[in-house]
Amino acid sequence: MSHSDAYDVVIVGGGHNGLVAAAYLARAGRSVLVLERLGHTGGAAVSTRPFPGVDARLSRYSYLVSLLPRRIVDDLGLRFAVRKRAVSSYTPDVRGGRPTGLLVDTAATGRTRAAFERLTGSEREYVSWERFYGMTRRVAERVFPTLTEPLPTREELRARIGDDAAWQALFERPLGEAIEAAFDDDLVRGVVLTDALIGTFARAHDPSLRQNRCFLYHVIGGGTGDWDVPVGGMGALTDALADAARAAGARIATGREVTSIATDGTSAEVRYEGEAGRAPRPPGTCSSGPPRASWPDCWARSRPRRPPKGRSSR
Ligand SMILES: Cc1cc2nc3c(=O)[nH]c(=O)nc-3n(C[C@H](O)[C@H](O)[C@H](O)COP(=O)(O)OP(=O)(O)OC[C@H]3O[C@@H](n4cnc5c(N)ncnc54)[C@H](O)[C@@H]3O)c2cc1C
Questions:
Q1: Closest alpha carbon to 88 in 237, 202, 192
Q2: Is the dihedral of CA 48, 194, 109, 178 positive or negative?
Q3: Distance from the CA of 61 to the center of ligand 1, in angstroms?
Q4: In Å, how far from its chain's centre is CA 233?
Q5: Cα(49) to centroid of ligand 1, in Å?
Q6: Residue 102 CB contacts under 8 Å (≥ 6 apart), including other chains
Q7: How far is the CA of 98 from the centre of ligand 1 (A)?
Q8: Residue 90 near ligand 1, beta carbon < 6 Å
Q9: Average pLDDT for residues 140-163, to the nearest whole number?
Q10: Which residue of 253, 292, 297, 313 sits 20 to 30 Å from the alpha carbon of 35, by its own alpha carbon?
Q11: Angle ∠(238,243,33) on CA atoms, nearest 5
């Protein structure tokens, strides 16, 4: 038995990106179907209640918010809040046989300065730190607003930043060069590099500049580079996004794994199955049945695209 429905847009995956897209497209009058493999939406941005009997929701995987533009919260009317955190990192070390470490406390610059001096023996690294992150903050102020604007060209972005030294350090040359030029202490270099290497499998001097891209995503958020704690965990955000998408008319179907997308360039056929080990009821006339191995193919079609108007944005 098979079944089809036609939508303007079929979105594969109900993580925060799929949900934001669904909410905006539905609000723009498109018919939207979100197909999510798991039994819940949110992707890596979900919450859990880890303490039995305590009504505390904590993030399960992704846990800090920086790259969510305020405009999306306002546009979609999301009931979602964040709190500032003071300590952004603490890195333990052993120097001269004695345990020590580097505290970066953005709420108490005096404590951070003292930690740098204790670790490195002078104020030089702290002064360099302030100068380096002063530079990234100025870049952040210029770059972050572009995330909700039509995608600028490389030259447009460079002109907007208006700081050739920063452009070279962050966009053109491997980030390791700027870090080595700014800092002498290996641990301080490592703390700065964390934001560049995490999850990239790149090296500090990688010619691909993957490390630069990763670093920029870590320092431009909100125009400040701050990373805030979501109240109710990340799931509070994705639940609010799912509510906004549904309220705008999007249909969200969980327990549906997309297995293929066939397109002729104007429309697409999206095939999906029920979740393994579960027997969810697929859309339309498909009835619940045996698990994945013998689950009948179900599918949805996206309608032919309208001719594009103007420039596309991210
Ligand atoms: C451990 C960890 C910690 C992180 N910490 C942070 C952080 O603190 N802050 C931050 O900003 N980012 C963090 N990230 C990165 C962030 O989680 C991702 O960038 C974000 O989740 C991407 O969102 P997404 O919607 O694109 O994809 P995802 O969140 O991955 O969601 C994709 C969804 O698609 C579904 N899916 C996949 N294949 C199919 C299919 N075939 N059919 C149907 N559905 C499918 C998945 O089940 C999933 O629900 C972290 C990531 C990890 C793994």
A1: 192
A2: negative
A3: 9
A4: 14
A5: 19
A6: 89, 90, 91, 93, 115, 116, 119, 187, 188, 191
A7: 40
A8: no
A9: 97
A10: 313
A11: 90
Q: Is the C-beta atom of 57 inside 6 A of ligand 1?
A: no
CB of residue 15 inside a 6 A radius of ligand 1: yes
| Token pair for 158 | 């460079």
For the segment 259-282, the average pLDDT, to the nearest whole number, is: 76
ipTM: 0.99
Check pLDDT > 50 for residue 242. yes
Mean pLDDT of 220-227: 96
- Whether 184 contacts 121, CB under 8 Å: no
pLDDT score for 304: 60
Q: Is the CB of 17 under 6 A from ligand 1?
A: yes
Cα dihedral 223, 225, 227, 228 sign: negative
* Domains of the chain by residue range: 4-81+231-302, 86-223
Ligand 1: residue whose CA is nearest its atom 1 = 61
Average pLDDT value over all residues in the chain = 88
Compute the average pLDDT of residues 63-80. Answer: 97
Ligand 1 and 257: CB distance under 6 A? yes
Q: Model confidence over 189-199: pLDDT tens digits?
A: 999 999 999 98
d(CA 120, CA 105): 17
The CATH homologous superfamily to which domain 4-81+231-302 belongs is: FAD/NAD(P)-binding domain (3.50.50.60)
For residue 123, pLDDT over 90 is answered with yes
| C-beta of 44 in contact with ligand 1 (< 6 A) | yes
The closest of 89, 72, 64, 13 to 233, measured between CA atoms, is: 64
| pLDDT for the residue 300 | 64
pLDDT bin (cut points 50, 70, 90) of residue 292 is very low
Ligand 1 pocket residue status of 63, Cβ below 6 Å: yes
